[in-house]
Amino acid sequence: MKTIHFKDFIDYSKRIGKMIIAGNEGTGKTLLLTCIAVYKMLNFRSYIYKSYDEIDKLNLLGYNFSKNFDHLCFCNYDVNCYGTEMPTERNYKFNPFKCGLNNENYETIPFPPYSLLCMTESKNYLNSYMYNLFQISFIMWLRTLRQAKIDMVVDCQCFSDIVTMFRNITNRFIYLHKECEEVLNLKGERVGHKLFVYEFNHHADAELFESKHEKRNCKEYELIIDLDLYNCYDNEFCKYLHLKGRELQDYVIEHFPEIKSIDDVERFADEIGAVAPDGFFKNSKSSISSKTVDESDEDDGYF
């Protein structure tokens, strides 16, 4: 199988466009997304001055955009450049729920020209089953990213997790099909990573692979990243979602009761989860509804 190094995977002197990275857990999706973000920060000179020039033109029209940024990398998780020539550099944060054209119903924020947006857990924001719920301002924002000189890279488990409209305008589909491996030096120290890639450049080919495992117009290669990225991001950052609102709670450490009576049977059934509590299901009663949950309800995402 062909092997390429990351420097040949992306040419930062050109626009990245839109990329979707998919694969099972452990294949290196967020690791690759992090690498793309790190090298966007390291290659800040590629577009930073072009961005300043565009902002000067906008301000001549009467806008008041500042140029108080040192690079053009925005992520919805924390990334740093540890282990590089710019170890203290960090990405700028963005909230995907504040993306969109100007809208009176919710706050949206603009991004400087030539920005790169790196979005992990993108199903929470670009869920294919929620297209009909998206504001037109969000849909039009996605459709016009290229004209606004904004690039976007997202990761997810499956290409089909992402709304069709975004897939149709994506130019690179990266599927990681094996668990990523460490690259070690002669001392046994981790100095990089190896990812196993199937790449498609058209949404129809990516969707065919996902539905029938047929590799049409597919590039297969091993991608070598010559940087230990595990210090550049917290690969368990979603753990904080499990802590929100629990500052007054403690862990429940209990044994199941012994079964000595009918009442014990009832308590056992309640505690093991045979009966769902109020609020567990949408519009639920105290018992499990016999109504089948449709696909759109199953895939609403966490947020």
Structure explained in plain terms:
The protein is about 25% helix and about 20% strand. With about 300 residues, it is α/β, with parallel strands linked by helices. It folds into 2 domains: about 1-240, P-loop containing nucleotide triphosphate hydrolases (Rossmann fold), CATH 3.40.50; about 255-290, no CATH class. Strands 1, 2, 3, 4, 5, 6, 7, 8, 9 and 10 form a 10-stranded mixed sheet that branches. The longest helix is centred in the first third of the chain and has 14 residues, at about 30-40.
Q: What fraction, in percent, of the residue positions are helical?
A: 10-25%
Mean pLDDT: 89
Please work out how many helical segments DSSP would assign.
8
Tell me the number of structural domains: 2
CATH topology of the largest domain: Rossmann fold
CATH superfamily of the largest domain: P-loop containing nucleotide triphosphate hydrolases
Q: Please compute the radius of gyration using only Cα atoms.
A: 23 Å
How many beta strands in the DSSP annotation?
A: 10
- Main β-sheet: number of strands, strand sense, barrel status? 10 strands, mixed
Q: State the name of the first-level CATH class of the largest domain.
A: Alpha Beta
- Low-confidence segments, given as residue ranges, are 286-303
Beta-strand level of the residues, as a percent range? 15-25%
- Structural class, by secondary structure, is alpha/beta
In sequence order, what are the helices and strands, one letter per element? EEHHEEEHHEHEEEHEHH
CATH architecture classification of the largest domain: 3-Layer(aba) Sandwich
